[in-house]
């Protein structure tokens, strides 16, 4: 969406318009991703429009890599906007235009109080143990009293009487006495707009009808309404948006989500933890919102069922174990070729993608994330001599190595190297020796994979193939048994 004053506030004509408006100062936060999700879902559910805005007015902290990271995370989750993103900084002239309109109509004023004067008044309020409120003598000053060539800020003229009520879609009815609202700054002394002003102007010009965001913005809503209602009085067509303030996400211990609870950025869940986007989508959806006892909710079902009014008022607790469990479900449901493409870069060395794809049905049944899938598949692509884990090496006793030699002798001459044929041969051998099948499978698994856990042993034999399987077994048998096999 192009910037500038050409955008019209046509939300009412278009139906529901939501927006997600991150500040590009770092990664896409997991809480921001859930806010984006709720906005996307509400727009889809109502047949409306979902927009993106990059709030890049903090030039010192806003970076191109951060913008790219936010877009990358949103794209991965399928939450990109319905139109090109708006960049807030590019609209600074429009923001200033609105501030001057409020100033000209008497809804704002020039304030010439210096930083030193404000600091002294703040210190006096602290000494007298009372809250500090801006009480500017410039609030009602006539224009002819304005000092020439002296810097000033433009402040909103907040009402001093009455109260303001917001019927929040999540929190319910909230009322604040107007005396609690301060004469906050709209334009700084250098003429640049503040965040509070820019947000309101952009929401109006983008036609936003529903502002769905974190409940840490509740106080901002009352202040932003002052601008909206001031402009409605100036030119009309500035309706109040509907607000829905969503509780923040907390850690499992009930404290606000922080780095000590684990990853905060969406990219870390994808890149470091191996989570699928559909799993994170489903999990974030269920953080504070639900549909009966349903845990597994598809994208289409989410669109059909979602209503912002059903978001809980209390903070949701992030549970990594639940996310991993949900991810395991989506791994089992995922296309094998897609999983192979995702897992291959996580395996060291050369990878046969066709083999990895064939292995997926037996690998994914036990994995919770892509890292576990990669670890489970690594044995397929390990070159000999095979590294044997300590626990697996403990299984390779002399008796076990002798048994491996007998196994190799039994299966070498099999005409077909298939699951059924291998299983029949080894079960028959176990019965002949009066052993449980596990007594054969344990040392065989250690020899074939170097580990104590793997897919079913017959699956392992089939995936490795006749030559590689016999070579790995042969490397672990006793010398005498090895000679016997060679003879």
UniProtKB/TrEMBL annotation:
<keyword id="KW-0963">Cytoplasm</keyword>
<dbReference type="InterPro" id="IPR001412">
    <property type="entry name" value="aa-tRNA-synth_I_CS"/>
</dbReference>
<dbReference type="Pfam" id="PF19269">
    <property type="entry name" value="Anticodon_2"/>
</dbReference>
<dbReference type="InterPro" id="IPR000924">
    <property type="entry name" value="Glu/Gln-tRNA-synth"/>
</dbReference>
<dbReference type="InterPro" id="IPR004527">
    <property type="entry name" value="Glu-tRNA-ligase_bac/mito"/>
</dbReference>
<feature type="domain" description="Aminoacyl-tRNA synthetase class I anticodon-binding">
    <location>
        <begin position="338"/>
        <end position="475"/>
    </location>
</feature>
<feature type="short sequence motif" description="'KMSKS' region">
    <location>
        <begin position="256"/>
        <end position="260"/>
    </location>
</feature>
<keyword id="KW-0648">Protein biosynthesis</keyword>
<dbReference type="InterPro" id="IPR008925">
    <property type="entry name" value="aa_tRNA-synth_I_cd-bd_sf"/>
</dbReference>
<dbReference type="InterPro" id="IPR049940">
    <property type="entry name" value="GluQ/Sye"/>
</dbReference>
<dbReference type="InterPro" id="IPR020058">
    <property type="entry name" value="Glu/Gln-tRNA-synth_Ib_cat-dom"/>
</dbReference>
<dbReference type="InterPro" id="IPR014729">
    <property type="entry name" value="Rossmann-like_a/b/a_fold"/>
</dbReference>
<protein>
    <recommendedName>
        <fullName>Glutamate--tRNA ligase</fullName>
        <ecNumber>6.1.1.17</ecNumber>
    </recommendedName>
</protein>
<feature type="domain" description="Glutamyl/glutaminyl-tRNA synthetase class Ib catalytic">
    <location>
        <begin position="16"/>
        <end position="324"/>
    </location>
</feature>
<dbReference type="Pfam" id="PF00749">
    <property type="entry name" value="tRNA-synt_1c"/>
</dbReference>
<comment type="subunit">
    <text>Monomer.</text>
</comment>
<keyword id="KW-0067">ATP-binding</keyword>
<dbReference type="InterPro" id="IPR033910">
    <property type="entry name" value="GluRS_core"/>
</dbReference>
<dbReference type="InterPro" id="IPR045462">
    <property type="entry name" value="aa-tRNA-synth_I_cd-bd"/>
</dbReference>
<feature type="short sequence motif" description="'HIGH' region">
    <location>
        <begin position="22"/>
        <end position="32"/>
    </location>
</feature>
<comment type="similarity">
    <text>Belongs to the class-I aminoacyl-tRNA synthetase family. Glutamate--tRNA ligase type 1 subfamily.</text>
</comment>
<feature type="binding site">
    <location>
        <position position="259"/>
    </location>
    <ligand>
        <name>ATP</name>
    </ligand>
</feature>
<dbReference type="InterPro" id="IPR020751">
    <property type="entry name" value="aa-tRNA-synth_I_codon-bd_sub2"/>
</dbReference>
<keyword id="KW-0436">Ligase</keyword>
<dbReference type="GO" id="GO:0004818">
    <property type="term" value="F:glutamate-tRNA ligase activity"/>
</dbReference>
<comment type="function">
    <text>Catalyzes the attachment of glutamate to tRNA(Glu) in a two-step reaction: glutamate is first activated by ATP to form Glu-AMP and then transferred to the acceptor end of tRNA(Glu).</text>
</comment>
<keyword id="KW-0030">Aminoacyl-tRNA synthetase</keyword>
<keyword id="KW-0547">Nucleotide-binding</keyword>
């Amino acid at each position: 969406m192009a910037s500038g004053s050409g955008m019209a506030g046509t939300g009412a004509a278009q139906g529901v318009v939501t927006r997600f408006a991150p500040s590009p100062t770092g990664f896409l936060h997991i809480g921001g991703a859930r806010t984006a999700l709720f906005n996307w879902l509400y727009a889809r559910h109502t047949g409306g429009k979902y927009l993106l805005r990059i709030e890049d007015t903090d030039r010192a902290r806003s970076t191109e890599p951060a913008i790219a990271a936010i877009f990358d995370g949103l794209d991965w989750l399928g939450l990109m906007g319905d139109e090109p993103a708006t960049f807030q900084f590019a609209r600074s002239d429009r923001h200033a235009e609105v501030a001057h309109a409020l100033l000209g109509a008497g809804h704002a004023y020039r304030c010439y109080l210096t930083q030193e004067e404000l600091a002294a008044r703040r210190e006096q309020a602290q000494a007298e143990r009372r809250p500090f409120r801006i009480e500017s003598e410039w609030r009602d000053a006539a224009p002819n009293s304005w000092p020439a060539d002296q810097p000033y800020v433009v402040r909103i003229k907040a009402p001093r009487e009455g109260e303001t009520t917001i019927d929040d879609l999540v929190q319910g009815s909230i009322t604040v006495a107007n005396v609690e609202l301060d004469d906050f700054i709209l334009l700084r002394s250098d003429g640049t707009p503040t965040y509070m002003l820019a947000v309101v102007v952009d929401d109006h010009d983008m036609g936003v009808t529903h502002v769905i965001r974190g409940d840490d913005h509740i106080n901002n809503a009352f202040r932003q309404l002052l601008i909206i209602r001031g402009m409605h009085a100036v030119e009309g067509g500035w309706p109040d948006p509907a607000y829905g303030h969503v509780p923040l996400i907390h850690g499992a211990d009930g404290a606000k989500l922080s780095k000590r609870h684990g990853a905060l950025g969406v990219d870390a869940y994808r890149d470091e933890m191996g989570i699928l986007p559909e799993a994170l989508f489903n999990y974030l959806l269920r953080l504070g919102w639900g549909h009966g006892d349903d845990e597994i909710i598809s994208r289409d079902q989410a669109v059909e069922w979602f209503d912002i009014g059903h978001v809980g008022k209390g903070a949701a607790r992030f549970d990594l174990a639940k996310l991993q469990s949900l991810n395991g479900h989506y791994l089992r449901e995922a296309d094998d070729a897609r999983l192979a493409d995702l897992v291959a870069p996580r395996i060291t060395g050369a990878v046969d993608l066709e083999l990895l794809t064939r292995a997926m049905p037996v690998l994914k049944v036990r994995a919770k994330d892509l890292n576990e899938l990669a670890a489970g598949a690594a044995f397929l692509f390990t070159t000999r001599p095979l590294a044997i884990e300590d626990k697996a090496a403990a299984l390779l006793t002399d008796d076990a190595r002798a048994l491996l030699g007998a196994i190799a002798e039994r299966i070498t001459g099999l005409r077909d190297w298939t699951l059924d044929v291998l299983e029949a041969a080894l079960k028959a051998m176990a019965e002949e020796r009066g052993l449980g099948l596990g007594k054969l499978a344990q040392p065989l698994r250690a020899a074939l994979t170097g580990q104590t856990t793997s897919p079913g042993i017959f699956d392992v034999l089939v995936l490795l193939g006749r030559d590689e399987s016999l070579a790995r077994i042969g490397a672990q048998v006793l010398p005498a048994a090895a000679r016997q096999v060679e003879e």
